Amino acid sequence: MSWVFLLFAGLFEVVWALSMKQSEGFTRLAPSFVTLCAMIVSFSLLALAMRSLPLGTAYMIWTGIGAVGALVVGAMFLGEALTPLRVSAALLIVAGIAVMKLSH
């Protein structure tokens, strides 16, 4: 169950990153509220996952899901560029996560 908690914690990290961008520096109320709620859910699920997963593994996977997810969401919904270098960086993050998981 810890892996499920970790997956959803990472997905909620993407939600709060997107809503933070849309809050325009916390000047818009609705996206600011979504940001804070998604942060609470994300951190809570991460804490539940860390009950049985190693700190380094859990944190690396959580941040990796957030980083790669934010890149994908930014490209799909905000028109951000998916350059070969940015895609390569995302692939390196995924490779790092895979190696971390294999070492567990």
UniProtKB/TrEMBL annotation:
- Name of the protein in question: Guanidinium exporter
Which subcellular locations apply to this protein? Answer: Cell membrane
Keywords assigned by UniProt? Cell membrane, Membrane, Transmembrane, Transmembrane helix, Transport
Q: Record's Gene Ontology CC terms? A: plasma membrane
InterPro entries in the record? EmrE-like, Small_drug/metabolite_transptr, Small_multidrug_res
Q: How does it sit in the membrane?
A: Multi-pass membrane protein
Q: Which family does it belong to?
A: Belongs to the drug/metabolite transporter (DMT) superfamily. Small multidrug resistance (SMR) (TC 2.A.7.1) family. Gdx/SugE subfamily.
Q: Which GO terms describe its molecular function?
A: transmembrane transporter activity
- What positions belong to coiled-coil segments? none
Q: Where are the transmembrane segments?
A: 33-50, 57-79, 85-103
Give GO terms for biological process. xenobiotic detoxification by transmembrane export across the plasma membrane
**Xref: PANTHER family:** GUANIDINIUM EXPORTER, SMR FAMILY PROTON-DEPENDENT DRUG EFFLUX TRANSPORTER SUGE
What Pfam families does the database record attribute to this sequence? Multi_Drug_Res (PF00893)
On the tree of life, the source organism's domain of life is: Bacteria
